[in-house]
Amino acid sequence: MKEPLELRWILRPDPATRSSLLAEHDGMQVHSMRATPGGDGLVDVVLIDGERVRAHRYEVVPE
Q1: Which residue of 1, 18, 27, 59 has the smallest Cβ count within 10 Å?
Q2: Is residue 51 assigned to a domain?
Q3: For the segment 9-55, what is each residue's pLDDT rounded down to a tens digit?
Q4: DSSP H/E element including 7
Q5: Residue 20 included in any domain
Q6: Is 90 exceeded by the pLDDT of residue 59?
Q7: Please, which domain of life does this record's source organism belong to (predicted)?
Q8: Dist. CA 22–CA 47, nearest whole Å
Q9: Does 33 fall in a domain?
Q10: Cβ(54)–Cβ(41) under 8 Å?
Q11: How far is residue 41's CA from residue 60's CA, in Å, rounded to a whole number?
């Protein structure tokens, strides 16, 4: 029987626009995320260490 596939999500901030805001969290594993009201294109992201940040959906990528 095959082993189950394990997929992890990590935060990769866009260096062109948000590097200074999220640089310290680059490469951190994501625990959860959810859409936010307001239509600004950002999602709430909870990192594995409990830190909460707001990021664009495309900044959360599979590892």
Answers
A1: 1
A2: yes
A3: 999 998 887 667 788 999 999 999 999 887 788 899 999 999 999 99
A4: none
A5: yes
A6: yes
A7: Bacteria
A8: 12
A9: yes
A10: no
A11: 13
Structure tokens at 24: 């310290």
Range(s) of the domain holding residue 13:
9-62
Q: Residue with structure tokens 């490469």? A: 27
Residue 52's Cβ-count burial label (10 Å; 0-12, 13-18, 19+) is: exposed
- Three-state SS for 52? strand
Start-end of H helices in the chain = 19-22
Both tokens of 31, joined, read: 């625990």
pTM of this prediction exceeds 0.85: no
57 assigned to some structural domain: yes
Is the backbone of residue 41 left (phi > 0), alpha (psi -120 to 50) or beta?
A: left
Domain count, the chain: 1
Residue from 24, 26, 29 nearest 10 by CA: 29
